[in-house]
Design goal:
The chain is of the alpha+beta class and 337 residues long. Helices cover 39% and strands 20% of the residues. The longest helix is centred in the N-terminal third of the chain and has 27 residues, at 63-89. The structure holds phenylalanine (PHE). Phenylalanine binds next to strand 9 and strand 10.
Amino acid sequence: MATVSLDAFLAEIDRLRIDATAALSAAVDAPALEAARVEFLGAKSGRLKSIQKLLGGLAADDRPAGGRHFNELKQAVSDALEGAQQRLADGGESIEPIDVTLPGDPPRLGHLHPITQTIRRVQEIMSRLGFESVDGPEVEDQWHNFEALAIGAEHPARDPLDNFYLAVAQGTDPLLLRSQTSTVQIRVMERRKPPLRIVSLGRVYRPDTADATHYPMFHQVEGLLVEPGTTMAHLKSVLRMFASSFLGGDVHVRFRPSFFPFTEPSVEVDMEWGGRWIEMGGAGMVDPAVLEAVGYDPDSVSGFAFGLGVERIAARRYGVADIRDFYRNDVRFLSQF
Ligand code: PHE
């Protein structure tokens, strides 16, 4: 009478083959290998020996097949043992003991993007000069981006080719991605009464072709101060204190006459650093028409406003020649800051 089916016997053989090859190839030194040898090939109570005993329980017809499989198994395990002995003799090859006393791999920490760092630094410097940081929306209406800033319907700055207008239902004023942060001057003055000292830093959008000094999205710092008796001298002092603090050393500021619809007079702001003059943005005294548009009395308060390019001042400070590098997401560039 058979007590073991051939299927069950072959299943035992398979399991043992897997266990034995795993144990033998995992052995890292001679004692471990000897332990594995005894477990599987041990003459008295090795696992092969126990399987061999099962052979007698197979039906007489199945015994030749069972015996053949058993012999193959024995050969395979012996070969694996020999392979493992060879491997240890060769110096252990790929399997190395783990040294738990070695220092681990420190996780790589990231940091803020250089433009974000610049924004934070500008906010910090300006806050010491009494300017509060405020935010405004990046999707704007025509009133805040143009009209309240005295940029009339026929002004070339409103050209569809120079702005990212958003498609909206016919008959309504199209919204746009703001082309300047001067929008925030209006939004703040509409809500608050003077005296006012604010800075606003954020993204602006213009459909420019990207090159070393242009990008269709960039950042501006907008500053606005409205108090009785404000003059251009205050504007220049604040810009100079800001520039010296940000760039380090005694940075000179130069005004060149210019025109913006919302300031009068208007100037271009250059900063000198290391012997070179670089244009950083525009500024001027807030036009009385703008003060009126937000309900202020131009006879009792005056103010100045300025707008600087964040990428420009960051490039200046860090010596970056191409502002596109700020947006390439190349960690070899970014990790320098
Ligand atoms: N908004 C202007 C620009 O983007 C800069 C500016 C800001 C000029 C404030 C005057 C006053 O070019």
